[in-house]
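This section describes the prediction task in plain terms. A model, or a person checking by hand, is given the sequence of a single protein chain and must write out its three-dimensional structure as a string of tokens. No templates, partner chains or ligands are provided. The sample shown here is typical of the held-out split.
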Amino acid sequence: MRPPLAFRPGDTPSPHFHNTVTLRKLRRFNSLILVFRVTAFTFSLASSVFMVTNSRGSDSPHWIDFDAFRFVFAANAIVALYSLFEMGVSVWGISTGATVFPEILQVWFDFGHDQVFAYLLLSADSAGTAFAKTLKGTDTCTAAAAASFCVQSDISVALGFAGFLFLGLSSLLSGFRVVCFIINGSRFHL
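The expected answer:
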């Protein structure tokens, strides 16, 4: 039987001791989440920009006239703002080793918002896909002046789906953090 660890007077044992290998793994895990958040931000911002610039003149259709395309723009803009905020939180966590909010709140905040915004993005891009497919069978996309409108709408929706993919991956990792917090009392799995 091993004797208990001896502590000097005034020392308090840390419930979460981390050696340098563990710290490197945690930094790598946090960096992976940051990469997913940056990528989700990039795709969502690009989708928003593609949709908002999708008007070629008075003879071409305007995206704002179609509810589904307004939904695509709004959802991607919201996700881009959220991802920008979460990128800042991730950079803060990597550089300081602490969370912006108390740890329990941060874990649930990240997971809950990742889930909500991922489903928002999925539903918006699904509506945009269905509407773009409907437009392909009408005169809106067959006219020469409006053909670029339909192509740019398709690109915007596709970029939104790519943003959803990376936000979904980020959501998986934040879900892993929630499970670790429930099991270990810390968002770290080690």
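For orientation: Residues 46 and 146 are 21 Å apart (CA to CA).
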